[in-house]
Design goal:
- There is one protein chain.
- The protein is α/β, with parallel strands linked by helices and about 270 residues long.
- The chain folds into two domains: about 45 residues, no CATH class; about 180 residues, L,D-transpeptidase catalytic domain-like, CATH 2.40.440.10.
- About 15% of the residues lie in helices and about 20% in strands.
- It has three helices and 14 strands.
- The strands form three sheets. Strands 2, 3, 4, 5, 7, 9, 10, 12, 13 and 14 form a ten-stranded mixed beta sheet that branches.
Length: about 270
Amino acid sequence: MQRLCLIIVALVTGMSSAFAQSRDWVPWREFGGGPSYSSPQAPRPQRARPPRAYSDDDDDDGYGSPFGAPGGQIPYRKSTTQYPAVLQGGARPEISPQAPQTVPFRHAFNQGSIVIDSSARALYYVLGNGAAYRYPISVGREGFSWRGTEKISRVAAWPDWHPPAEMRERDPRLPEVMTGGINNPLGAKALYLGNSLYRIHGTNDAKSIGYAASSGCFRMMNQHVMHLATLAGAGTTVTVLDRLPKGGAVSTAPASSTPVVTKVKRTG
């Protein structure tokens, strides 16, 4: 009888322990739900890693996951996949425009123009009356930044991506063309700057926003570029600065209308 009692106690204890462990095992925790794991013996759920969308752009050599402190550089990394000559960009979902924060803007730029503060990783659309929309962006890496004034020459929805010859020389595994779509690094909309290779465009890589991640283009969240495109079109002036003065000081656009580009050719 004593032995039977001991067996029953052991079974109850084991069931309690198992229940405590199962309570810690939450299969959707990696998606942001459930408590943290408190038992070192609790099994951790495994899930398949989704296919990675290609995250380069016409002027960008990086794969765009954040590196270092916010606002820092995302380093160059070559493709690890040999892509076909024509790469499909995937579906083209409906993306609703989303307005960014409205902020004070006391600088002498015309209403309806765009001002880019490269150091702050911010694009301003000037509303007038001392206010502007402020969009978070990513900018060119060190050695690939530029400053000056351009005008938007055209706007394209779900643009195709054509890696330039210099980029394909550095990384021969890149496709010759990638059709527009959700996996395309140019995103849902692109605003082309004059006759240059530079653009303001959406991105399929939200983690790169706020960093120096490209070779001269300016990336925005897809919903933000959709909003900007409702305000800015062909003929809109875009001024790119190293930085805006602090404290509400008045600043004006550079006298030159030609971009001053500081770009170095890299290998490897």
